Amino acid sequence: MTTDVLEAWGAEGQAPDMTLATCVTPDDVRRALDVLRNVAIRTPSIESAWLSEHVGARVFLKCENLQRVGAFKFRGAYHAMSRLSEAERKRGVLTYSSGNHAQAVAHAAALLGTRAVILMPENAPRVKLDRTTSFLESAPEGSRVQTYDPVSVSREELGRALASDEGMTIVPPYDHPHVIAGQGTSALELIEDVGDLDRLYVCVGGGGLLSGSAVIAKDLCDAVSVIGAEPALADDGARSFRDRVLRTVSNPATIADGARTPYLGRHTFPLILAHVDGFVTVSEDELKATMQIAFERLRLVIEPSGVLGLAAMLQDAGAGRLSPGAKVGVVVSGGNVDLDAVPSLLG
Amino acid sequence: MTTDVLEAWGAEGQAPDMTLATCVTPDDVRRALDVLRNVAIRTPSIESAWLSEHVGARVFLKCENLQRVGAFKFRGAYHAMSRLSEAERKRGVLTYSSGNHAQAVAHAAALLGTRAVILMPENAPRVKLDRTTSFLESAPEGSRVQTYDPVSVSREELGRALASDEGMTIVPPYDHPHVIAGQGTSALELIEDVGDLDRLYVCVGGGGLLSGSAVIAKDLCDAVSVIGAEPALADDGARSFRDRVLRTVSNPATIADGARTPYLGRHTFPLILAHVDGFVTVSEDELKATMQIAFERLRLVIEPSGVLGLAAMLQDAGAGRLSPGAKVGVVVSGGNVDLDAVPSLLG
User: Is the ipTM value over 0.85, yes or no?
Assistant: First the structure.
């Protein structure tokens, strides 16, 4: 892994490097699953009778909210870290995240015996700080959560400086082939479990889950349409896909915090252009209504970013864009909802 | 099925009829599963890495909150109704329940094309009335929810009068061998999926789920302990088990509404005496804390009655009564939580 991923990437209007559209292959995803078997939870692929009858299709939910750390992020982080050389692992890893990727790296560090430094904004939710710290208690000495003032400090600059000082490898949250291959394993398990799909809905932040899922789904299924699901308030992915050049957003006000990522990655964008069939954007009201459906009808706790794919599927079904009887997969993740936030999120 | 189940049963201190301890056999449970395959959801048996590490055992949750109608009750109701003769089915079924059994009978009626009349107290939660009514919309003509004033009317008397007038068969919520055999299928699936268990925790109201689960678990596992889990405020089952005569409660004030049943059944009590190893009672605070753990750590929505088994397991683990590394099954069900009730239940 390199620390320069972000340096030459991220400008509005930038063209994708389509030579990277083969940087993750279906076999890469299969090999990642070999690594993750017996480590990651093989999460269930659940059919809700109510949901299938409600939309007139057969819908299978791949419940990554039931994954370790409550999110698919564990797959990419663990896989990427397991691919480091012994020397790299000894020197340790660094990442920056206020979300589920921080917990994923911390948990993987403990399991792999790798030192990890996690940069988190000092105003990150207490529960996320606490859980990340708690995972690191079982990781090697020198592991720590380091908080910073997000107003005055650039996390990328701080991260690069620290990683360079301490010889650590940066594990980016999405923009690396090993991370992407790891994220693709949930779609691989889903298709192994339920068979060929007609359509697959996947949430999009930086596009790691979407690109990995699309690579493997297109390989395994005869005629699957892979759909990225984004908040309308953070539709940089949908616009990038439509315009075939990078579109960006800045601090979008969506409740789907996992989808606030400013742009698709240097690797994820070309993979998405090569393998994804379309995007659906959903309103904040649709997100809230879908969380409520998840809670009341599916009995699953899913955070706002995690219901994006489900919200997109429901929108398509409501608009008659879902073929009757179609076999549909939806990746749901993650499941980290603060109890305090329940009334405002669901009420 | 008969309508006289309740007539000769229910007195404090009454002795069990132990000739009924063989009224449900392991093969009855296996045959019930043959009926339920492709009808009931084969709910997932989930291991939470966090939970297993937290208690130092391998814990598998059988997620009946993800079953049709959000509860194991569907299994027993559908199985019992599928065992009726064609003539009985034509005349229809009747039940009384303010809880998940009402929805289960209504849903099974729609699937089987059987007329159903469901007596519900007029003060039942709106969401339960609405859902039961909604299922009955797909059931044959004459199906209806009939509300009654629970203060002035005995639901048993009203039910027997109506059933007799209209020639309907009563489908009791737990105290019938066909219902019990159906409820046992979830433990059968769990053991099929994860193998031999050392211990199995099951929630107790009238004892249908516990007795069915115990019958099949004792048959399949080498040395499993089957534990019933009850609220301390509604510990009639635990006391009946201890004293080997029927103990009763009256309108206990537990939040676990599914466990407010006044006494074990004429059939479930002897089955429990013959096959169950012990009871654990849990406080209301333990129930609330366990619901919170389910929400935050397991990402599952489980109602108070549904977390009884999990709360009992956590109590045993905390008290050092769980062998390190033991393989533990917990049936969790149901998942019908009113959003409005979330703050008071979880807060």
Answer: yes
